[in-house]
Amino acid sequence: MDDSRLTPLDAFDFGCAIGVTDVAGDLLLQGEDVERALMSVSKPVTALGALVAVRRGLLDLDEPAGPEGATVRHLLAHTAGYGFDTPREKLLAGPGERRIYSNTGFEVLGEHVAEATGYDLPDWLEETVVTPLGLRSLDVQGSPASGYRGTVSDLLVLAREHLAPTLVPGELAREARSVQFPGLAGILPGYGRQAHNDWGLGVELRDHKDPHWTAPNSAPETFGHFGQSGSFWWVDPTRGIAAAFLGDEPFGPVHVQGWPPLTAEILRRADAR
């Protein structure tokens, strides 16, 4: 990939970093690659730890977890019925009825993974994700929904793991990026109601959502996550590339306006390789 400066990055008049990778290694790293808050980009890290527990037979996607009638799968796919940050006893829907993006659900998921594995969740993630992947800066202390910190370089390593899985078998990795509970509408935070608010297991699926934080020419198969710290991480398995962005300003209009052209330029360069 052309390593000249990504001019759409100039739209962000604060400290930030952008990185692009394929399965072989980094293609581009631009900006100040320092440790920053991941916020909701923490969720795919927690999800990967849960999938490793599934691989090891310590957890089953369809075992009960959370409110009555819900499973681990419901928690990972934001369909357990919890609100965004509401008390656990205040359910907004029955399991599988609505797609409600929920930090509460990932808090419950973290506790369930800890109980199933016999490890504190940070210790489990250190042993099964951070150490095997050689993540030098990723800090997995704090909320499993929004509390982790890391660098763009860390997120690119995680992206390569999703492009060529080593921690979970390929079939489980494909299931994680497949639609769970199809046909559910819901609110995509920051972008409004989506008639088909498709999610996989801990990752959002691009599909044909509009508006969206990726680019109009992003492949429907693209999956990833963004966070309120002004962070994103996406993987395009059709092109075999991935990208990550971290910055010093919380998510706002500049990200809504600036992320799609930034992604579009990355894809243009990737397609021209």
Description:
Helix 1 (42-55) runs parallel beside helix 3 and helix 1 crosses helix 4 (121-133). The chain is 32% helix and 16% strand. The protein starts with 15 loop residues before the first strand and ends with a helix. Strand 5 and strand 6 form a beta hairpin. It has helices at residues 42-55, 72-76, 103-117, 121-133, 152-163, 170-176, 253-272, and strands at residues 16-22, 25-31, 36-37, 149-150, 186-188, 192-194, 204-205, 223-227, 231-236, 241-247.
Describe the structure in brief.
By secondary structure, the protein is of the alpha+beta class. The protein is built from 7 helices and 10 strands.
Count every beta strand, where a strand is a DSSP E run of 2 or more residues.
10
What is the helix/strand order? EEEHHHHEHHEEEEEEH
Specify the biggest β-sheet. 6 strands, antiparallel
Radius of gyration: 17 Å
Q: What low-confidence regions span 5 or more consecutive residues with pLDDT below 50?
A: none
| Shape verdict | globular
The helix tally amounts to: 7
Mean of the pLDDT scores? 96
Helix content: 25-40%
Q: How is the largest sheet built, in terms of strand order? A: 2-1-10-9-8-7
- Strand content range: 15-25%
Structure classification: alpha+beta
Q: What distance lies between the first and last C-alpha atoms, to the nearest angstrom?
A: 6 Å
